[in-house]
Amino acid sequence: MDELSQKLFHLSHCPSMTWNRIFRLLKADPSLKHIYSYSARHFSEVLSTPMKKSLQIYQEIHSFDIHQSLNIYNRYQIKFFPIYDSNYPRLLKQIPTPPWGLYAAGDSRLLSDEKKIAFVGSRKGNDYGKKVISEFIPPLVEEKFIIVSGLASGIDSFSHQAALQADGKTIAVLGGGFCHLYPKENAPLAKLIAEKGLLISEYPPNRKPKKWHFPERNRIISGMTIGTVVIQAGKRSGSLITVQHALEQGKEVFAVPGAIFDPLSEGTHDLIADGAHLVRNAEDIIKAF
């Protein structure tokens, strides 16, 4: 790992280092050569933060043992890909706030493959959603699409499972670190994905998921894929955040209709009314590309 990669790796472990703060540091010092010599006051000036927060940042930076963490991650075959790495997804680099780095466990070659499509929907997805996924994903796998989702309950889990059952590749984008999987009951599925596909996160393995991590995670799901398929999304489904990111990123959005009286169809039907592609089978998705 080169020096800049190590610095980005280090900063990602500092909870107070937001995307914008890292951006400001890189703007002031593109090689991050001097961050270890900065005083708390200098951090305050560069980051435009109060002294109390700058002292916290200073302490976080100087209390982290980078070499110990690298040794642990190497032991567990966890890799870190900074934004300028050749394996980092090209499409993800193009979004407004791409992660400065990605942690990966599994087949990291999948990162640079651009034939990825996202499947998102309700955590309350039912047998209808499962049937749609079981019909849609095998033909997409046959066409060498990589299925990307967020390892949540419901539609996410169904999508990962269907891809694996079809001997395809799937990527799970996490809302926390690898050591704090959410939901916990998906730990066996996560293990299987790490063995046969790829787990990724912008958060270091020891970072517990926070409520705001999941909307941030959704920009990665849409950002690294060429399109997003929405199945069973209610009026206020969190999956609609992924759709909003996809639209802002100029990506294709596909919505699967459901029963008109089903609350889980309200969000998807609104998307169709607003111009999303109405899809009835995998072929409707394949022909869009």
TrEMBL record:
* Residue span(s) of domain Smf/DprA SLOG: 81-288
A GO biological process held by the record? DNA-mediated transformation
The record's listing under Pfam families reads: DNA_processg_A
Matching NCBIfam families, A to Z? Answer: dprA
Which family is it part of? Belongs to the DprA/Smf family.
Q: What is this protein called?
A: DNA protecting protein DprA
Phylogenetic classification of the source organism: Bacteria, Bacillati, Bacillota, Bacilli, Bacillales
